[in-house]
Amino acid sequence: MAGRHSFAELRARMSPEAKAKAEAEALRLDEEMDLAEIRRALKLSQEEIGQTLQIGQGSVAKIEKRADMYVSTLRRFIEAMGGELEIVARFRNHTVKITNFAELSGNTSSADTSKHSGFHED
Length: 122
What we know:
single chain, mainly alpha, two-stranded antiparallel ribbon, 6 helices
């Protein structure tokens, strides 16, 4: 597998037309999407995400299909696409951003990682 590439590097390789089209598509999308829909809307391939996360394309496909995963896995996946994960609880009369997970950014423990990729796979 090729070396790790940041989202900024991958984005820099895109033509101005492709960047504009990706931005327009991202703005058009609904508020609710699964990971694969987000990735496709950003015009990123599973291979590109895999390179950023240092995992194979097959592992990216598995993560996209999961309904249950560690918060750290979801955070890294979102960050690989250039985003930032926020966990929010919505109540009848108010919304609260949960801050417990902010400390996970960049800090993964051995309890929530697989030995090869930094991702737990069932």
